[in-house]
Amino acid sequence: MSIKIYTKTGDAGNTSLIGGTKVPKSHLRIESYGTIDELNSFIGLLNDHLLTFDALKPLNIDLKEIQDRLFTIGSALACDPDKETRMKLPDLTENDVHWLEQRIDDMQRELPEMKHFILPGGHVAVSTAHIARCVCRRAERLCVAMQLQNLFMPPLVLQYLNRLSDYLFVLARYIGHSLHVPEVAWKPRIS
Fold it and tell me: Lowest mean pLDDT: which of 23-27, 49-53, 121-125?
């Protein structure tokens, strides 16, 4: 027998953190891990866009790895740090940040030097990578807000999200380059 997906416990605008603490659905902690979930969904969409390109198939493994790390971050943010959970939660490590840096360096070696700001677009996969980058930056800002409000989160979360947004920017360029999509330079209108 399957578990019911609806519990009706959130109908009054509250939800539970891992550990059982009830908080409003507008709580900054909920907003933070909800944005991580949104980012994870956009990365899934990006991965789907890349499936049809043989040259980009190795990225599918990378994006699945990132989605796994985002679930790790989401579970960490969903925990009440003041309560012990019975669950064993996965950890984010410095190796996860170094892995992103290595992937950025690998892609950048194949890219032409960037000499101007570029407009997002040119291909749906490129645009989706840029959307994911923007959602990642929003998640990072929310986590900074958590820090400013003295809400605990694992220290590597900010570093990982910062590096992930850099990765997604380089990935957007890399996808465009691999698909022979020209970058569109931003040409500011000056009166």
Answer: 23-27
pTM: 0.88
Q: For residue 68, give the CATH number of its domain.
A: 1.20.1200.10
Which tokens in the block code for residue 187?
A: 């040409």
Phi, psi of 24 (to 5 degrees): -65, 150
Q: Is 142 within a domain? A: yes
* Whether residue 184 has pLDDT greater than 80: yes
Percent of the chain predicted with pLDDT > 70: 80
CA 169 centroid distance within chain = 12
59 lies in which domain range?
A: 23-80+97-183
Once rounded to an integer, what is the mean pLDDT over residues 144-163? 92
The three state secondary structure string of 84-142 is CCCCCCCCCCHHHHHHHHHHHHHHHCCCCCCCCCEECCCCHHHHHHHHHHHHHHHHHHH
For residue 5, the Cα-to-chain-centroid distance in whole angstroms is: 25
What are the beta bridge partners of residue 185?
118
Establish if 10 belongs to a structural domain: no
According to DSSP, the β-strands at 184-185 and 22-24 are unpaired
